[in-house]
Structure formats: structure tokens, C-alpha cells
Amino acid sequence: MMPLLTPLRRLRRMLPALLVGVSILLAPVLVLAVDDPSEMLPDPKQEARAEAIGSQLRCLVCQNESIEDSGAGLARDLRKVVREHVAKGETDKQIMDWMVDRYGNFIRLSPPLSVGTLLLWSMPVLALLLGLTTAFFAYRRRAAAPAAPPPLSDDEKARLAKLTKD
């Protein structure tokens, strides 16, 4: 049994090194999937602006990542569109307005405060309050329901017996 333990111990010692090696080998592949040098603008200031705008826009595929962080094909296309608008000399507001007109406020990672967003964020609280109110009134109605009717008197029992005989 001793010869079997030695290879297992060796494998246990080598496992962290293997994991580090595999992650080092895969890291360049992951980086290239997100940042394609061909889509970057030649002017560093324009590129920084494009990245800043892209970090405010939601990837419509991933939905929890910005288009700058996503490796999805649609995010890549949106990055190109943002860079085209930046290269044309449009302002950040013009680019953001164009994106919102095209895709709606959902494309913003942090949408502006409006009646719709307030309603969206307050719905869980409103639903909880509605449920508690309904439960409260149902409990009160049940508690206020009349008790069982009083027992019949002797006259009522006699009258009932007479009616049931007929």
C-alpha cells in the first residue's frame, strides 16, 4: 500500500503548480477575446473617451457587464460603433443619446432616475406592503366574524319539530 500513497502525494503537490500553469497559458486567450487591437482608436485621448463611454453601456447579451468588459460579438460591434462616433467628433452626450434612442434606457448600466426606475425599484416593497395589508384585513375579518349561533330555546325546538313533521 505504500507505493500507492507516494504517487498520490506527488500529484497533490503538483496540482497547484498545474493549475497555475494552465491559468497562465489561458490568460492571453482571454485577454485577446476582450481587447482586439484592431478596434482601438489611434489617438489615446479618443480611445480613453471611447472606453469611458463603453464602460457606461450595458452589454445586451451579458446584461451585467459593460461593452468594454464583454467578449460577446454584439458588445464588440457596439464598441466599434462607439469608436466611430468618437472619431467623428461627437460629444459623449450625443453618443449616449444615440445609443439610448436606438436601444432604450436599458443599454445604460446606471439608468437615470425617472418614474419608471422608481417604480421598478419600489415594486418589491409595494408588493410586500400590499401582501401584509391584505393579510391584516383578512385576519381582522376572520376575527370579527360572528361566533356560532346560540343554542335553540325550548319554544324554537318545539316549533322546529312541528315544522319538520309537516
Any overview of this molecule?
Residues 146-166 are annotated as: Disordered. This protein has helices at 2-34, 44-54, 73-88, 92-103, 115-144, 154-165. By secondary structure, it is mostly helical. It folds into two domains: 19-112, Helicase, Ruva Protein, domain 3 (Orthogonal Bundle); 113-144. Helix 2 packs across helix 3 (73-88). The longest helix is centred in the first third of the chain and has 33 residues, at 2-34. The chain starts with a helix and ends with a helix.
The count of DSSP E runs of length 2 or more, i.e. the number of strands, is 0
Q: How far is the N terminus from the C terminus?
A: 97 Å
Summed over residues and divided by their number, the pLDDT gives a mean of 82
**Helix content range of the residues, please?**
55-70%
List low-pLDDT spans: 29-34
Number of contiguous helices: 6
CATH topology of the largest domain: Helicase, Ruva Protein, domain 3
User: Major beta sheet, specifics?
Assistant: none
Beta-strand percent range: under 5%
Shape: elongated
Q: At the fourth CATH level, what is the homologous superfamily of the largest domain?
A: Cytochrome C biogenesis protein
Based on the structure given, which CATH architecture of the largest domain is correct? Orthogonal Bundle
SSE class: mainly alpha
In quaternary terms, these chains amount to single chain
Protein name: Cytochrome c-type biogenesis protein
Organism: Acetobacter indonesiensis
Biased composition (Basic and acidic residues): 154-166
Function: Possible subunit of a heme lyase.
